[in-house]
Amino acid sequence: QVQMVESGGGLVQPGGSLKLSCAVSENIFNFNSVGWYRQVPGKERDFVASINVGGRTDYADSVKGRFTISRDHAKNTVYLQMNSLKPEDTAVYYCRANILSTHYWGQGTQVTVSS
Q1: pLDDT, tens digit, 9 for 90 and up, residues 44-59
Q2: Measured between alpha carbons, how far is 59 from 41 in angstroms, rounded to an integer?
């Protein structure tokens, strides 16, 4: 069973930065892509960013220029560097790994942007 563990969330002031980590129990190159999603209470889980096996990255329009997804193959870890954070970035952030139509999710990490 694939295990994915997110970390790095917390409380940060507007304009601040956080770096999330997603540690995967398997070789991350086994997956077509690994990405980050976020969810606020009462709303659907939304796409934030992804990186595919070839290294191509994609971002939601709302985070382009502020967030950067990266990976460390040796550590089987995917990161999300979040800069210039806004209150509307407050959410639970989840990591997801994909093999074709099969998705594996982590348990999520809370990010709160507030003064």
Answers
A1: 999 999 999 999 999 9
A2: 22
Extract the runs of DSSP E, i.e. beta strands, from the chain: 4-7, 10-12, 18-24, 33-39, 46-52, 57-59, 67-72, 77-82, 91-99, 102-105, 109-113
Residue written as token pair 């550590």: 75
Residue 50: name the closest of 66, 34, 26 by CA: 34
Which 3 state secondary structure label does DSSP give 75? Answer: helix
Of 64, 61, 45, which is closest to residue 105 (Cα–Cα)?
A: 45
Percent of the chain with pLDDT over 90: 97
Query: What token pair was written down for 82?
Result: 């979040």
